[in-house]
Specification:
- By secondary structure, this protein is mainly alpha-helical.
- The protein has a domain of 79 residues.
- Helices cover 57% and strands 0% of the residues.
- The chain contains four helices and no strands.
- The longest helix has 25 residues.
- The radius of gyration is 27 Å and the shape is elongated.
- 10% of the residues are buried.
Length: 115
């Protein structure tokens, strides 16, 4: 089904406004009106993105959040890499070469301290 990108954009803007209205009138964490507005917004976005591509071979810079991906992360599937992982180093595991930083610090302190 080919949709006019302008009509799809108008529907997307309406869906954004409806989502804002539902969110601002939320009656608790699982308000059905917000969930419906969310689904309508997601559908409107997909329709606009597809219409834009069909008409102009162009896409938006946005990607829909997929709840299934989040559930996979919680179950340990497709874990994202964590470059900021904290590693606990036991002092007993240190080798003499690991004291290099201490040696450099002592040498720097000697150079900077007044004689």
């Amino acid at each position: 089904m080919t949709t006019d990108p302008r009509a799809a954009l108008d529907r997307l803007v309406e869906a954004l406004e409806a989502h804002l209205a539902a969110s601002s009138a939320r009656r608790g964490p699982s308000d059905a009106a917000v969930a419906r507005a969310y689904d309508t917004l997601a559908d409107a976005f997909e329709t606009y993105d597809e219409a834009l591509y069909a008409a102009y071979e162009e896409t938006t810079p946005f990607e829909l959040y997929d709840e299934d991906d989040d559930e996979d992360d919680l179950n340990g599937d497709d874990e994202p890499e964590d470059d900021d992982e904290v590693v606990d180093i036991d002092e007993d595991d240190l080798t003499p070469t690991d004291d290099f930083d201490d040696h450099v610090d002592d040498e720097l302190e000697d150079r900077l301290s007044p004689s």
